[in-house]
Amino acid sequence: DTGVSQDPRHKITKRGQNVTFRCDPISEHNRLYWYRQTLGQGPEFLTYFQNEAQLEKSRLLSDRFSAERPKGSFSTLEIQRTEQGDSAMYLCASSLALGTGRNTEAFFGQGTRLTVV
Amino acid sequence: KQEVTQIPAALSVPEGENLVLNCSFTDSAIYNLQWFRQDPGKGLTSLLLIQSSQREQTSGRLNASLDKSSGRSTLYIAASQPGDSATYLCAVNRDDKIIFGKGTRLHILP
Description:
The complex is a heterodimer of chains A (117) and B (110).
Chain A: E1 5-7, E2 10-13, E3 19-24, E4 31-37, E5 44-50, E6 53-57, E7 65-68, E8 75-79, E9 88-95, E10 107-108, E11 112-116
Parallel strand pairs in A: 2-11
Antiparallel strand pairs in A: 1-3, 3-8, 4-5, 4-9, 5-6, 7-8, 9-10, 9-11
Chain B: E1 4-7, E2 10-14, E3 19-25, E4 32-38, E5 44-51, E6 56-59, E7 62-67, E8 72-77, E9 86-94, E10 97-100, E11 104-109
Parallel strand pairs in B: 2-11
Antiparallel strand pairs in B: 1-3, 3-8, 4-5, 4-9, 6-7, 7-8, 9-10, 9-11
């Protein structure tokens, strides 16, 4: 297992287009998180899954954003009708769930940098 | 609402110096605290994880401490090197959300 992988690494899209990002977590991890990071800021929480269930969504996740994790493995984050304000780095992380008695360290992917022109 | 603050926002020190990065959080009911490194345009690399029951963790030249009751953590870097230049992020895990500070941009001068 090579860690958390995200695809694509970079995406340039025109305003109004839809985009979809993919995250492949570490295989044994049941938690998967999505974050957004803009320049000079720390990552901001968007949503997280435990297995296939989406347990929480941030207020930052408008109706144009949707995330899925079918079968509790990889996850996708789709942004519909992109706006220039959506330009950011989108980060995915995975970990084991809390309370398992095992290491709950979170590991991040390299991110997808989205530029909306 | 959990808030995480990192001070200073930026730091430049000559190579070889020992340094301390600070992190504070408003809600002490955390499950764990994690320090990350981020190079420009890259993802996050986990450096150290401290469980809420622990006081410190060490990895090589890095030592992280946690004082949960006062809501503080420090990351100590010994004998700094130019390769340590990066942004260092502190994050706390509470209620299954990982909340980040804005980071400290560290520049080690050769």
